[in-house]
C-alpha cells in the first residue's frame, strides 16, 4: 500500500490543501522508515517547504483547532490529527551542554539535504513526496535499510545530542540491524565523555521502554554493553559466573540476554508487558552479591528484589511499576520450586496472598518459563512439571488470593480497640482461613485468644 493511502482521510485532505497552496510537502522520518520496513506507521511527521510559519498556521487552522506544541522545535499540531506533527525545515545549533540546549532556526527555503543533516540516522533521513510518489534520500538511507545497517547521518550533528546513544540501542533492538562501526565509535566517545549525565530521567525512560518492548531486546542491551553505558547493576552480571551444570550458557549476563528474548515472545500474554520485560531483565540482579565460588547464588531473589527497586527508581520512578517488578524478581524461583516438589494447599494460598495486588500468577508463570528456557540445558521435564502445577492448583484453589472472611469490624465487635492488635488478629484470621477454617470457626479462635489473654 502506498504511504499516502496509509494516512487518514483528514490527513490526506490537509496534505493536499498544503500542496495546492504551492508548498512542497514531505512525509519524513519514522513513518517513511517504517513503510520501507513493511510496518504500518502509527504516527506521521510532515515537513513543509516553501511556506512561512504564519501561512502554515493559517492553513492548518482551516481544518480545526491548531497550536504550536513543540515551541522549541516549531512543531504544529491539529487537535483532530493527534497522529500527525507538522513542521517547517530547520537548523539546530547546540548552545549548551544539555540534551535540549539547541537554538532553532526555522528556514522554509532550506535545502532538503541541509534539513536532513540534523537527523540522527540515515534510515530516518528520508523524505517522501506523496504527490510525485518519489523519495528524497540525500544520505542513502534506503540503501542502509536494504543492507540492514544503522549509520549516523553526520558525525558532528550526531554527537551534539547524547540521547542518540539510547536511540541507537532501541533501534538496534527493534530492527535487528547492525551498527556501522564509525557510528559505534561516536557513541562510545559520547559515553566516555560523560555526556549521558545531562539527559533527563524522562527521556532515558522513553528510550529504555522502546528497547524493552522491541522484537529482540538483547541486541540493544549488547550495544549498550559495547559502548559502555550499561547500568552498574547490569554491568555486574557480566562478571558473575554460574553453575555450568545448570547454566552452560555462561555468565548471568548471557543468561539474562537469553531470558529477555524469550520474554519478548510472550509479553503480550501478560498483564503488564513493560513491567514483565523489566522483570526478565532484572530477575537475577541479586546474583553478583550472592554467588559463591561454586556458582551457588543462595538468596539472590531477596537481594535482587532490593536491587530491582534501585534500578526502577533510577530509571522509571513509578511506584506501581516498581512494586510489580520487585515482586516478580522476589518470586521468580518460587513457582518452579513448588512445581517440582509437593506443597500444601495452604502454602499455595499464602503465595497468592503474597503477590495479591502486586503481580499475577499468570505473569509469574511466564517469567518462570522464560527463566527456564534461558538456560541452555534440557528443561523439558521442569517445564512439564510447571504446566502440571499450573493446571492442578489454580483449577482447585483459584489463581487469585481469596477475600478475607473476617474484617476489622468483626474483630472490634469482639471488644478490641482500633490499633495494632486489630491488624495482628486480622492476619491470624486470614492465616486460619488459608488453613481451611470457616468464618464461624475463625471468630471462635479469636474470641478464645482474647479470653485467654494470649493476644
From TrEMBL:
Establish whether keyword Cytoplasm is in the entry: no
Q: Which cofactor does it need?
A: Mg(2+)
Q: Which keywords label this protein? A: ATP-binding, Magnesium, Metal-binding, Nucleotide-binding, Nucleotidyltransferase, RNA repair, RNA-binding, Transferase, tRNA processing
Protein species of origin: Candidatus Fimiplasma intestinipullorum
User: What's the domain of life for this entry?
Assistant: Bacteria
According to its UniProt entry, the protein's GO biological process terms are:
RNA repair; tRNA processing
Describe the location of the Poly A polymerase head domain by residue ranges: 25-151
What InterPro entries does its record include? Answer: NT_sf (IPR043519), PolA_pol_head_dom (IPR002646), PolyA_RNA-bd (IPR032828), tRNA_CCA-adding_enzyme (IPR050124)
Protein name per Swiss-Prot or TrEMBL: CCA tRNA nucleotidyltransferase
Taxonomic lineage is: Bacteria, Bacillati, Bacillota, Clostridia, Eubacteriales
What is the similarity comment for this entry?
A: Belongs to the tRNA nucleotidyltransferase/poly(A) polymerase family.
Looking at the record, the residues that make up the tRNA nucleotidyltransferase/poly(A) polymerase RNA and SrmB- binding domain are 176-237
Question: Which molecular-function annotation in GO is an example for this chain?
Answer: RNA binding
Amino acid at each position: 500500500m502506498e504511504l499516502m493511502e496509509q494516512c487518514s482521510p483528514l490527513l490526506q485532505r490537509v496534505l493536499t490543501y498544503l500542496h495546492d497552496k504551492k508548498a512542497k510537502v514531505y512525509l519524513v522520518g519514522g513513518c517513511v522508515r517504517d513503510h520501507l520496513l513493511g510496518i504500518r506507521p502509527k504516527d506521521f511527521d510532515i515537513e513543509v517547504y516553501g511556506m512561512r510559519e504564519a501561512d502554515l498556521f493559517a492553513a492548518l487552522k482551516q481544518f480545526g483547532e491548531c497550536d504550536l506544541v513543540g515551541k522549541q522545535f516549531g512543531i504544529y499540531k491539529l487537535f483532530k490529527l493527534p497522529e500527525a506533527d507538522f513542521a517547517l525545515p530547520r537548523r539546530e545549533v547546540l548552545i549548551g551542554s544539555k540534551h535540549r540546549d539547541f537554538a532553532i532556526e526555522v528556514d522554509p527555503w532550506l535545502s532538503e539535504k541541509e534539513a536532513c543533516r540534523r537527523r540522527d540516522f540515515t534510515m530516518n533521513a528520508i523524505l517522501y513526496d506523496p504527490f510525485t510518489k518519489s523519495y528524497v534520500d540525500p544520505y542513502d538511507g534506503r540503501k542502509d535499510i536494504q543492507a540492514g545497517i544503522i549509520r549516523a547521518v553526520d558525525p558532528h550533528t550526531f554527537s551534539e545530542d547524547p540521547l542518540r546513544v539510547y536511540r541507537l540501542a532501541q533501534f538496534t533492538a527493534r530492527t535487528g540491524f547492525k551498527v556501522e562501526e564509525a557510528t559505534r565509535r561516536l557513541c562510545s566517545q559520547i559515553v566516555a565523555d560523560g555526556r549521558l549525565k545531562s539527559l533527563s530521567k524522562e527521556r532515558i525512560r522513553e528510550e529504555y521502554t522502546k528497547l524493552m518492548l522491541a522484537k529482540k531486546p538483547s541486541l540493544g542491551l549488547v550495544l549498550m554493553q559495547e559502548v559502555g553505558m550499561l547500568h552498574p547493576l547490569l554491568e555486574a552480571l557480566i562478571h558473575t559466573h554460574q553453575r555450568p551444570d545448570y547454566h552452560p550458557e555462561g555468565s548471568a549476563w548471557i543468561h539474562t540476554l537469553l531470558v529477555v528474548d524469550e520474554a519478548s515472545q510472550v509479553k503480550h500474554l501478560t498483564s503488564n508487558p513493560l513491567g514483565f520485560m523489566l522483570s526478565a531483565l532484572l530477575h537475577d540482579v541479586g546474583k553478583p552479591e550472592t554467588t559463591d565460588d561454586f556458582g551457588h547464588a543462595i538468596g539472590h531473589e531477596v537481594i535482587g528484589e532490593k536491587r530491582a527497586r534501585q534500578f526502577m527508581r533510577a530509571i522509571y520512578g513509578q511506584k506501581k511499576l516498581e512494586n510489580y517488578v520487585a515482586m516478580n524478581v522476589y518470586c521468580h524461583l518460587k513457582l518452579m520450586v513448588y512445581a517440582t516438589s509437593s506443597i500444601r494447599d495452604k502454602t499455595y494460598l499464602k503465595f497468592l496472598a503474597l503477590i495479591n495486588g502486586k503481580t499475577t500468577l499468570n505473569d509469574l508463570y511466564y517469567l518462570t518459563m522464560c527463566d527456564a528456557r534461558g538456560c541452555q540445558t534440557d528443561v523439558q521435564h521442569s517445564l512439564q512439571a510447571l504446566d502440571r502445577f499450573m493446571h492442578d492448583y489454580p483449577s482447585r484453589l483459584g489463581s487469585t488470593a481469596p477475600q478475607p472472611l473476617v474484617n476489622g469490624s468483626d474483630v472490634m465487635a469482639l471488644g478490641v480497640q482500633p490499633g495494632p492488635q486489630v491488624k495482628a488478629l486480622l492476619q491470624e484470621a486470614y492465616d486460619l482461613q488459608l488453613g481451611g477454617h470457616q468464618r464461624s470457626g475463625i471468630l471462635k479462635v479469636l474470641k478464645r485468644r482474647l479470653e485467654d489473654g494470649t493476644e
